[in-house]
């Protein structure tokens, strides 16, 4: 975000301030090209496959909208989109999967609830210990007491929890779901992601902008590690499937139609988010947020509460990521914690946003769909190129290719994504559809 | 006493090993931070790159080390350091310098370095595959078992050959860096630039040279850290995101822009990790008889399981950001 020096018109009069409506040629051309690409994919790959691609692209568009709020509106860099997506997917799984009677029919739920209650009580005790100085205990002694209490109580609770969870795992497999409609899970996923975002943002947003990137990168790996290793909650690497859809499934309507119905649900969600964001962007709140991004000092001097606005933006973006992650997880009908990869769920979204145009919602949606099509199509392409290279190498030079060629060929996509990020940052830092900044004169 | 030996093996030695590696990594990160003012996310992949170069060279000349009596990988290390330093300077010229010339915010540099990290990852995995490989191609990893001269101690203290090299090389690197920063002209210029870039430039310091020197040092250190880590365990191409968090945590704990702080921070994070995954009930077991009857000791009394190790550096990071964002030793840039 470099500040371009704007030349000021000496004949400036306030009447000039209303921006003239220019013909949206760039938008029309880009979206026309996108439509042509989608139609081409339909013609080549068939309707069922292409509709699936579109639904996934739509879910990614929600993630990208979440990131464009954070990065485009406010200049916060979230390097852990994957974590929030995984949280959303986990909630969608937890709420929609049928009830597991092997767990709920036994005394295990009450055991688990008891341990969780112990945990809450232990937290309260520790919090109370940190307030001991109000009773006249010296501060150093209070800190010592609080830390010792925290360590001991933590160890007690965690070993109780380990017992219960291993019992759940051996007797019931896993906790199972709540058997509720999937959209409940999406909403809770959004709320949970927002809660985690609040925790991170509260700590990091007042500090250097790099710290937020480091912390989000960390929390994403932690969330993934937790979901992967908590077999009692998520079945871990054994994965949970199928996740029921909120719309009629493929068994009733056939693949194409069922996916099209799901697509319309995601389209409605995107439309609502888009409308709300559009309103917010042009409201005084949006102006204030952009003012903070562009010049922090002057907006602080105007009396704006910078840290609070930043936190709002960050939490809002995280909520959208959780929601999008939930919709993506339900659509895939599979909860696999190992399937959440930084490349697919963080950096792909980042490319969508910076290529499409950070801060421009339309550009972000364009970027999401366009990049996702390229991404999906690059997999067969990379393999084809690799096979050709092997063919040439074997035939002409007698080169013996390594065995795990497929997994290596896919690594080429990692390289391309990285190259794309650096090139866009250098040559088109505002994206294909730049944010429209109203200028006077 | 056996329990004590167990403690030494699992905490003191293991903690020093991880601590040294994090410390060397964190020095590089903190140097880049103090000169160029951005968090360099590609550092872990530079470590992997250095280790990969060693692997390639070792596979090419497997017998080079046997003549001197050290592992071949160590003989190849200086060459790999040069290559990694060249890579770091090249990456800076190709990707970071244009961004810097544009006058972008530091956070854009961070995103640029993430792009670089992905490119390096892609290239390394394309050529190295995704599975782990040992850096000991032709030679054997020596394991020393030191029996303690006490009654009733059966378990020996176990230390491996690469761990000893690791301690020695860490010490040498730290001392060399100290001498460089304090005695040499370039080192002093670097410190001046980290204090105040404008003033340094105005007093005739060539900032481009300083930037290049910083990358050379950071690249060389990254190659050392990556190689020693791979020697100790195995060479794994996909460690990067798991290494980044502890290294950044170490740099921030020590105070960003503070090389000695980064060393301390590395050991803090390394020991915290090993202490957190250590099963404390082993140490309490000898005193089991003196416990009251109602207290039954669980068999596993670790703070976190090994699979949650990454929580530890994150917890340290959060704690330091909440209580003392400038780090333990008062970093310069915040």
Please name the defining characteristics of this protein.
heterodimer; A: 441 residues; mainly alpha; ABC transporter involved in vitamin B12 uptake, BtuC; 2 domains; 17 helices; globular; B: 334 residues; two-stranded antiparallel ribbon; 12 helices; 67% helix
In short:
The complex is a heterodimer of chains A (441) and B (334). Chain A has 441 residues and is mostly helical.
The CATH top-level class label of chain B? Mainly Alpha
The top level CATH class name of the largest domain in chain A: Mainly Alpha
Average pLDDT of chain A works out at 85
Tell me what the CATH architecture of chain B is: Orthogonal Bundle
Strands side by side in the biggest sheet of chain B: 1-2
Q: Biggest β-sheet of chain B, characterized?
A: 2 strands, antiparallel
Number of strands of chain B: 2
Counting helices, strands and paired strands, the structural category of chain B is mainly alpha
Low-confidence parts of chain B lasting 5 or more residues at pLDDT below 50?
none
* C-alpha termini separation of chain A: 21 Å
Tally of helical segments of chain B: 12
Biggest interface, which chains? A-B, 54 and 56 residues
From N to C, what is the helix and strand string of chain A? Answer: HHHHHHHHHHHHHHHHH
**Rg from alpha-carbon coordinates of chain A:** 25 Å
Strand content of chain A: under 5%
Poorly predicted residue ranges of chain A: 1-6, 13-17
Our count of domains of chain B comes out at 1
Q: Identify the CATH architecture of the largest domain in chain A.
A: Orthogonal Bundle
Structure commentary:
The complex is a heterodimer of chains A (441) and B (334). Chain A is an all-alpha fold. Chain A folds into two domains: 30-98 and 180-427, ABC transporter involved in vitamin B12 uptake, BtuC (Orthogonal Bundle), CATH 1.10.3470; 101-173. Helices cover 73% and strands 0% of the residues of chain A. Chain A has helices spanning 25-45, 47-73, 81-96, 101-104, 108-130, 139-172, 182-204, 209-229, 231-234, 250-253, 255-282, 284-294, 296-301, 306-332, 342-356, 361-397, 405-427. The radius of gyration of chain A is 25 Å and the shape is globular. The two termini of chain A are 21 Å apart. The relative contact order of chain A is 0.16. Residues 1-6 and 13-17 of chain A have low confidence and may be disordered. With 334 residues, chain B is mainly alpha-helical. Chain B has one domain: ABC transporter involved in vitamin B12 uptake, BtuC (Orthogonal Bundle). Chain B has twelve helices and two strands, in the order ααααββαααααααα. Chain B has helices at residues 2-36, 43-60, 72-102, 106-128, 161-183, 185-195, 197-202, 207-232, 240-253, 259-277, 281-284, 311-323, and strands at residues 143-146, 157-160. In chain B, helix 1 (2-36) runs parallel beside helix 5 (161-183) and helix 3 (72-102) packs antiparallel against helix 4 (106-128). Chain B is globular, with a radius of gyration of 21 Å. The N and C termini of chain B lie far apart (46 Å). Chains A and B meet through helix 6, helix 8, helix 15 and helix 17 of A and helix 3, helix 4, helix 9 and helix 12 of B.
């Amino acid at each position: 975000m470099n500040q371009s020096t704007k030349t000021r018109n000496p004949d400036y009069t306030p009447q000039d301030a209303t921006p003239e409506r220019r013909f949206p040629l760039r938008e029309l051309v880009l979206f026309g090209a996108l439509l042509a690409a989608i139609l081409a994919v339909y013609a080549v790959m068939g309707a069922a496959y292409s509709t699936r691609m579109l639904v996934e692209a739509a879910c990614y568009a929600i993630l990208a909208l979440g990131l464009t709020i954070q990065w485009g509106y406010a200049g916060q860099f979230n390097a852990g989109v994957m974590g929030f997506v995984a949280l959303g997917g986990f909630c969608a799984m937890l709420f929609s999967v049928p009830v597991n009677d092997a767990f709920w029919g036994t005394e295990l739920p009450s055991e688990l609830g008891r341990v969780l209650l112990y945990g809450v009580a232990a937290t309260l005790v520790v919090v109370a210990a940190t307030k001991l100085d109000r009773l006249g205990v010296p501060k150093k002694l209070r800190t010592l007491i609080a830390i010792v209490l925290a360590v001991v109580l933590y160890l007690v609770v965690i070993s109780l929890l380990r017992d219960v969870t291993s019992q759940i795992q051996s007797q019931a497999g896993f906790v199972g779901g709540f058997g509720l409609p999937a959209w409940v899970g999406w909403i809770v996923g959004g709320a949970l992601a927002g809660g985690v975002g609040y925790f991170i943002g509260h700590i990091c947003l007042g500090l250097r902008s790099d710290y937020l990137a480091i912390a989000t990168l960390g929390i994403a790996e932690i969330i993934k590690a937790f979901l992967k290793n908590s077999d009692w909650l998520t079945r871990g690497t054994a994965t949970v499937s199928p996740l029921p859809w909120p719309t009629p499934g493929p068994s009733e309507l056939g693949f194409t139609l069922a996916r099209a119905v799901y697509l319309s649900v995601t389209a409605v969600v995107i439309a609502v988010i888009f409308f709300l964001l559009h309103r917010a962007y042009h409201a005084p709140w949006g102006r204030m947020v952009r003012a903070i991004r562009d010049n922090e000092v002057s907006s602080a001097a105007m009396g704006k509460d910078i840290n609070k606005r930043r936190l709002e933006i960050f939490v809002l973006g995280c909520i959208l990521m959780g929601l999008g992650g939930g919709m993506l997880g339900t659509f895939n009908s599979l909860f696999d914690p190992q399937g959440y990869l930084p490349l697919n769920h963080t950096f792909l979204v980042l490319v969508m946003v910076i290529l499409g145009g950070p801060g421009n919602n339309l550009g972000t949606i364009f970027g999401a769909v366009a990049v996702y099509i390229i991404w999906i199509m690059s997999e067969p392409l990379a393999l084809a190129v690799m096979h050709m290279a092997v063919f040439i190498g074997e035939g002409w030079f007698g080169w013996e290719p390594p065995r795990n060629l497929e997994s290596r060929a896919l690594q080429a996509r990692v390289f391309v994504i990285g190259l794309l990020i650096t090139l866009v940052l250098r040559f088109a830092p505002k994206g294909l559809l730049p944010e429209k900044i109203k200028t006077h004169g | 006493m056996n329990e004590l030996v167990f403690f030494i093996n699992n905490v003191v030695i293991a903690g020093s090993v991880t601590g040294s590696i994090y410390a060397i990594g964190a020095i590089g990160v903190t140097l880049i931070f103090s000169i160029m003012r951005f968090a360099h996310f590609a550092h872990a992949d530079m470590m992997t790159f250095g280790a990969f170069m060693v692997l390639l060279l070792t596979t090419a000349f497997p017998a080079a080390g046997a003549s001197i009596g050290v592992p071949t990988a160590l003989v190849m290390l200086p060459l790999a350091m040069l290559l990694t330093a060249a890579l770091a300077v090249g990456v800076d010229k190709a990707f970071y310098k244009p961004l810097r010339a544009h006058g972008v915010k530091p956070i854009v540099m961070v995103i640029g370095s993430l792009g670089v990290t992905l490119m390096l990852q892609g290239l390394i995995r394309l050529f190295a595959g995704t599975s782990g490989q040992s850096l000991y191609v032709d030679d054997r990893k020596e394991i020393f078992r030191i029996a303690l001269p006490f009654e009733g101690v059966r378990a020996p203290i176990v230390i491996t050959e690469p761990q000893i090299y690791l301690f020695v090389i860490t010490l040498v690197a730290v001392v060399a860096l100290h001498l460089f920063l304090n005695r040499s002209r370039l080192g002093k210029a670097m410190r001046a630039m980290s204090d105040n870039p404008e003033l340094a430039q105005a007093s005739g310091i060539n900032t481009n040279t300083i930037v290049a020197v910083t990358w050379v040092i950071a690249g060389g250190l990254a190659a050392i850290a990556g190689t020693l880590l791979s020697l100790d365990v195995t060479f794994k191409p996909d460690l990067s995101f798991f290494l980044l968090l502890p290294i950044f945590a170490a740099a921030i704990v020590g105070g960003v822009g503070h090389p000695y702080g980064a060393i301390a921070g590395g050991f803090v994070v390394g020991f915290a990790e090993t202490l957190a995954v250590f099963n404390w009930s082993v140490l309490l077991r000898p005193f089991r008889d003196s416990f009251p009857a109602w207290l039954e000791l669980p068999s596993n009394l670790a703070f976190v399981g090994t699979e949650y190790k990454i929580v530890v550096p994150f917890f340290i990071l959060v704690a330091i950001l909440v209580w003392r964002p400038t780090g333990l030793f008062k970093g310069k840039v915040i």
